Each structure stands twice: as structure tokens, then as C-alpha cells.
Amino acid sequence: MRRLALIAALLFAAPCLAWAQPVLNVYNWTDYIDPDVVQRFQQETGIRIRYDVFDSLETLEGKLSAGRSGYDLVVPTSEPTFARLVRAGALRPLDRARILNWRNLDAGLMARAAQADPGNTHGAIYLWGTVGLGLRLDRIRAIAPDLALDGLDVLLKPENAKRLAGCGLAVMDSATDVLPSVLRWLGRDPDSAEAGDLRAAEAALLAIRPQLRAIPGSGALLDMLATGEVCVALAYSGDVIQAAARAREAGRGVEIGYVAPAAGPHLFFDMLAIPADAPNPDAAHAFIDFLLRPENIAAVSSHVRYPNAVPASRPLISQAVREDPNVYPPEAVLAQAFVAGTPTPQAERLRSRLWSRVRAGR
Ligand code: N2P
């Protein structure tokens, strides 16, 4: 009888407990966290994480600009998305008193992100990286052994694209993260809104458009690289390095390498930020603080193969990742790298129309 009463009490209490448990709604990039870190946060705090993903800045910005996204924590790139959200008042100023691990952040990197957020009041750097090429080395060496694999020429020179087309070419579906690299490859200002520059970028992309097998979201592109479905892809550094690791583990002879553009790569900083209308900003602050603890952000970097902005985490990152010059680029590469700016609304419209034409192939 006593047992029955206990079971009845538990049955009654369980839904109430679930109801009372705080929830943190996270909206992050695909393949951009270590699931064990999420698990540990939930255990340590009793906060349940509801996790949702996007794979382009365009998708993220669409969701956030509409307001009432329901998310507590989002991960926009410093320029242009985070910068625009800060200016629009769409993000909540962070309460540093609740993020004690803020002191672990690299002051130099945070100063670079301050270009988008004066005083770093709305975001902490989560991870960063570059835009470059994922190359399927085993096939490319067989098809074009003479080809120099040192930059965007491999993809953007039409004669190279034609040679490699049978093996599969792709660029990720994001005007924001593709156009700056193409403009730079053309020797033009990566932020340009000049009609002549944009026409040149469009022509360069249309010239290889017939050879593009796909223009997928960045998450799908990572999968296509890992399975060997594409041979050349313009993608995010860590996505390529993750794809390379997965291909190695699969053991089917797919060998992937990452190449940063010779002219200097597009460098991005992805920020931890809280929407102004977040339902649970307390939980979001707790999660930011948790992520900035060296052992936690080291686990994230080891898992997703992107560098972070917490120097004390570096020795805790798996050796293969922390010593990979494609993950942590050497000073010489960083010196040449550029951070994109934020186009005016008018320039943004031109760029997104250009992108629709490139997608459509005309
Ligand atoms: C993760 C891609 C995140 C980097 N898959 C884009 N800024």
C-alpha cells in the first residue's frame, strides 16, 4: 500500500518537476559544440538545454530580425550579423558580474570583435575561423597532379573548375560568407558595394556556375566533403577539418585537406549573445560563463576543430587540434587575413540579388 502511494506521488510529481525545470533555448551553428559539454552543463546546473541549429548567417538573421525567436542564446558572426543586431537593439547587454570567466578571454581578439560592438558589451567570442577551400586530395592528385593547391585559383579559375568538375565542386549557400573571399581573390575590396566590383564577382561565380554540383548550407556541405561527394568546396575552416577527420575515421581512402586563400583569408569571430527578448537570460548568462571555463571551451575546440578565444584552454585542447596550423593559423597568415565589414542596407540588397542570380545560374 505504501509502495502504491509512493508510485502515485511520483507519477503526480514528475510532470510538475519537468514543468519547474528551467530551460535554455540555444540556437547555434550545425556541428559547433561538443555534446558532452551540453550534458555537463545540464547536470551541473539542472537547466535543460533545448538545442536548435542553423547553417548560414542569412537563416540566423532572418529568424532574429523577425523578433520573438524564443531563443536565449545565439551565435552570430561579429560582422555583419552581430554588428547589425547590436545596432538594431536586438541583443541584450551582458551582465559581466554574472560571467566571471569573462577574464579568461583574450584581450587582443576581443578588441578585434569590438569593431562590431564598441566596448564588447553584447557578446563574447565563442569560436573563430577562416573561409577557405576543402580539397579532396586523393582524387585531385589523380586528376590534376600538376595543379598547385595553394589558393582559390583551384576553384575560381574556370580552366581548373572544368578539369575538376567531374569530381564535384561546391560553394556554401551564403552571400555573406562567400562574396568577401571572391572579391578579395579578384584583388578588390572584400566589402565593396561598387557596381563594377559586384559585377566582377558575379561574373567570376557565373563562370564556374555550370561546374558547381551544389550550393548547399554549410552543414550539408560538411557532410558532402566527409563522404567524398565533392572534391573542392568553399567552406569554413573547422568544417573542412571536421570533414577530414570523419573521412579518416571512415577509412575509405577519402583524404581531405584545407587550404586558406593565398591572398589572405576572410577571418570571422562567432559571438555568444543573448536576444533582447530572451525568455531566460539568467540561464544564458550561466551557459556563457560555463563555456568560457578553460576545460569546457577546450573540449568544444577539440571536438569541432575551431580555435577559441580563451588562451588558458590551449594546452587542454587535443594535441592534433591545437597544433594544426589550419585551426590556429600562424601569425603570417593572420597578418594577411581580413575581417569583413557590414554592408549598408542598399549594398546588402544588391548582394542578395546577385546571390539569387548565381544560385539560379543566370
Ligand atoms: C560550424 C560553422 C560555424 C562557422 N559548422 C561559421 N561562422
General description of the model:
With 362 residues, the chain is of the alpha/beta class. The chain folds into two domains: 2-123 and 273-292, D-Maltodextrin-Binding Protein, domain 2 (3-Layer(aba) Sandwich); 131-267 and 340-360, 3-Layer(aba) Sandwich (D-Maltodextrin-Binding Protein, domain 2), CATH 3.40.190.10. 47% of the residues lie in helices and 14% in strands. The protein has 17 helices and nine strands. Strands 4, 5, 6, 7, 8 and 9 form a six-stranded mixed beta sheet that branches. It has a three-stranded parallel beta sheet with strand order 2-1-3. Helix 2 (35-45) links the parallel strand 1 and strand 2. Helix 10 (195-208) packs parallel to helix 17 (345-360) and helix 11 runs parallel beside helix 12. The radius of gyration is 22 Å and the shape is globular. The protein starts with a helix and ends with a helix. Bound molecules: pentane-1,5-diamine (N2P).
Features:
2 domains, alpha/beta, D-Maltodextrin-Binding Protein, domain 2, 6-stranded mixed sheet, 3-stranded parallel sheet, 9 strands
- What is the CATH superfamily classification of the largest domain? Periplasmic binding protein-like II
State the CATH topology of the largest domain: D-Maltodextrin-Binding Protein, domain 2
Bin the strand percentage. 5-15%
Number of E-type strands: 9
Ligands in the model, by name, code or SMILES, are:
pentane-1,5-diamine
Q: Given the C-alpha coordinates, what overall shape results?
A: globular
Helix content: 40-55%
Give the radius of gyration: 22 Å
Could you describe the largest sheet, including whether it forms a barrel? 6 strands, mixed
Q: Residue-averaged pLDDT, rounded?
A: 95
Contiguous helical run count:
17
Count structural domains.
2
The CATH class of the largest domain is: Alpha Beta
Low-confidence stretches: none
H/E element string?
Answer: HEHEHEHHEHHHEHHEHEHEEHHHHH
Broad structural category? alpha/beta
CATH architectural type of the largest domain: 3-Layer(aba) Sandwich
Distance between the first and last residues' Cα? 76 Å
